[in-house]
Each structure stands twice: as C-alpha cells, then as structure tokens.
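Continuing the batch. This is chain 6 of the set; chains 1 through 5 are on the previous pages. Same settings as before, nothing changed between runs. Recording input and output for traceability.
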Amino acid sequence: IDLWSSDHSPYFFADKIARSQTPDFTTTLSGIPGIETRLPLLFSEGLLSGRLTLERYLDLTSRNAAAIYGLAHAKGRIAVGLDADLALWDPTVTWTLGHRALHSRVDFTPYEGRSVTGKPTTVLVRGVPVVADGELQVQPGFGQFVERSAADPARSGKPVEEMMPWLDA
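Output for chain 6:
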C-alpha cells in the first residue's frame, strides 16, 4: 500500500441503493462516506496499536500522496519552503464514530458505533489554523489552488496487470 486514501461518496444511504429493487454491488453507487474517518481509523488501529511506525503512518497519509500527485514541491512533509499544512492530534481521546459526530452531509457511516482512540484537534493550512479545538475557523474560499508538477513514472512501480498473473489464464 502506497497511500491511505478514500473513495469518498457522500450520498444518503437511500440514494446509494435507490437504483434497484434488489440492491447489490453492481447497482449501488460506489464508495462510502470515509474522508473524515480514514485517518482516525488508521491512527487508532495502525499507529497507536503498533502495527505502523510513525514514519510509515506519515508516508501513508502525507508524503506518498504528495509525491504521487505531483505536490511534493509544496506539501507532504515539514521542510523549509513547503506549505505548513499540519494536523495536531490528541492521542488520548477515545471517541465513537457515528454519522452525527461527523461533518459530511450524509445519514450513515459504515463505522457507526466503532470506538477509536486519537482525534485531530487542530489543523493548520499554510500555517493558519483552519480548525482549532475541533471547530472550523475559516470561511469558504480560504483554500488556494496548488499547481502540480508532472508525476514521476519511476514512483508508479509495476502496472497492476503485471502483478496479477491469474489474468493471463
């Protein structure tokens, strides 16, 4: 795994399954609401459980994404000249995931009732607190477009097809 990402799909549950009388994976809308749960789950079950080192956690959540998406010139790590985008976590807070505790405009989470430890409390974007003590501090439009550089093909590794020999059968 090179990065920990989300196929975030912010649909209401009824809208996800509305295409069919007998919903299954071929008729429902893909993805789950996961953009706000993916990092707390990895923090709790990966980093705090000892399954991941801090170095590996940072690779999965920041450095690799910046490199893969051509943003390493501005983001992904703490260094002079890069944007000061940081998330500060309270590693002692235990909380329960549930759609009422989250901020996506949806009526479910597949992680409803799951307890996790660790929660981001402050988020800095370009050094400015955009979330402080769990509360949004900026107005819509605060973000800035960051131009990407070309992706490095050497980082791509082998195509998926070359790693799945059973497709040749």
